[in-house]
């Protein structure tokens, strides 16, 4: 007998659990008992059967990363789908990947977010199912119905096959879709109809064979995909495979058609927790049958209500019965509990008001979207241009680089540091440079316009201490100063917003510095990731991940976290891009420092500022203790029901990971601008300030 793998499948919109599922994916809702999320309860329940190393999670990247972090699963145990396409492709992908590891293995397919009361019986039923799978059956656990549910599909059981672990395994005659009330009543009275639990057990080899028989598109896609396993071409091939595969459920695509299917009738107390009524049923009630999670409820003449508040608000109930009251920072639901199935209509009603992106693109009057899309190209051109620059040999032999620059230009210094890990790079955003600067320092003045007074002042200040210096701008006074003082000046193209010219500033510099023997690490990797992202995130792929993130941040106050030395500059860039493009408040903070102050503010955050959404930007190069801190912080946030998101950089090198996170953030900020109804390009307040200051005559020190 091969190994047994527990595969937790997560997906689905959880529309009937609106609005909670706007804030958190359903598996992260705190209804798993003992303060646990649903997915944690699912995980804990199956762990004794298979052990930590054999629990896998299948979901789209963002969801998998979020849920994987909740369970503390290593990345190798996440099976990432390029996008959601119902359960059949997910099952096929899993069987392909895990079947390669263990061809004789058996897979327990577990939905991430169900309720099960008798866990011991559940595990025994799974063992019985494994036995049937060994006989070549595709097995489903069939729940003995306790009422004529119309919200579940049914399985008709046929003759018994054998007994195992105290359960009787039956041949399954057929699967039937959700019935109407009348049919459901007939099923229940027949006694051999069971609810389809969505919990399946089969051998990898068997399910792949059945996919081959019944889903030819998926089978062909998997066959092609197989040759890419473990290769760098995997992601592109997977995307291609998913596009070719049939979008269907494993129930409909395979189980309804397969010959050798079995069901094990169980009655361990099960629900798919699909709506607020089911959640109410699953929770403990007070004497008036009111159930609540994370809220202090005070009721008078109130009974049978369900109350849940993500922001932990106090809720008063007066003279109301059998309601579902669900509160999140973004939306509030008040519904009759008996109509819980219809909450989907509300969710869809709002969703139909999804932004009309084509209409919103018209707000981009100054072409920021196009500049964004061309960013990888901008970086490539800049690199080529930089490599043409010949810097005088006298510039070499420095111990550190000090970059002076503000705003969109200043960020160049931070990224230079990430790209050149062997060199100390310090970014100065001020009128003066630190006193330690001497001839061993290479001073780099970076100002896109060439006219920013702080940069000019700091550059001139620096020039009094070192002559090893160069300037980079599209022109302006910086060019004049360099020319007058005989200092190398690198020209970059005009016509951009400074913050949108980061590719020109950074990559031209990197190319030019190669001439001094400085070789950046991760440029090729970074550039190829950027090109792929340009395709995935541009308006041509609407809707996309960046748009989804922008929607998640709309009306919120983003607070972006990154680790010192890795993602911290990217967090700062996210913040400034959201400020400048989307014209809204955003803040950033650095790990580990924020663990010594900011976290105390969490105590009242939910009450005072429920609009704050924290965003962790992560890279695999973060210090391991910082990574651990993030895990603890996420626990703290979850306990306090404070919303957060987590994003991981792509690629291996620090530069590639930082660039991928930066580019994602840039896109998010532009889409957020459009959602906010503003043109991303103009930055009037910055210009106004610059003009006001220009009126007060002042000569930078020279
Ligand atoms: C505007 C922008 C600003 C500028 C900053 C400094 O797009 O990004 O943050 O970068 O005002 O100006 P420059 O870059 O011209 O030195």
Characteristic terms for this protein:
702 residues, Rossmann fold, 4 domains, five-stranded mixed beta barrel, five-stranded parallel sheet, 26 strands, 42% helix, elongated, binds fructose -6-phosphate
Basic shape:
elongated
- Measured by DSSP, the beta-strand proportion falls in 15-25%
- Give Rg in angstroms: 29 Å
State the helix count: 26
Weakly predicted, low-confidence segments: none
* Number of separate structural domains: 4
Q: What's the CATH topology label of the largest domain? A: Spore Coat Polysaccharide Biosynthesis Protein SpsA, Chain A
- The count of strands amounts to 26
CATH architecture of the largest domain, by name, is Alpha-Beta Complex
- Judged by helices, strands and strand pairing, the structural class is alpha/beta
> What percent of residues adopt helix (DSSP H or I)?
40-55%
Strand order within the widest beta sheet: 6-9-7-8-10
Q: What ligands are attached or bound here?
A: fructose -6-phosphate
Head-to-tail CA distance between termini: 80 Å
Explain what this protein looks like in three dimensions:
The protein has 702 residues and is of the alpha/beta class. It has four domains: 4-274, Spore Coat Polysaccharide Biosynthesis Protein SpsA, Chain A (Alpha-Beta Complex), CATH 3.90.550; 277-351, no CATH class; 389-520, Rossmann fold (3-Layer(aba) Sandwich); 544-684, Glucose-6-phosphate isomerase like protein, domain 1 (Rossmann fold, 3-Layer(aba) Sandwich), CATH 3.40.50.10490. It is built from 26 helices and 26 strands. The strands form six sheets. The chain has a five-stranded mixed beta barrel with strand order 6-9-7-8-10. A hairpin with a 2-residue loop joins strand 7 (154-164) and strand 8. Helix 21 (545-553) packs across helix 25. The chain is elongated. It starts with a strand and ends in a 7-residue tail after the last helix. Bound molecules: fructose -6-phosphate. Residues 406-409, 447-449, 452, 455, 497-499, 580, 683, 686 line the site of fructose -6-phosphate.
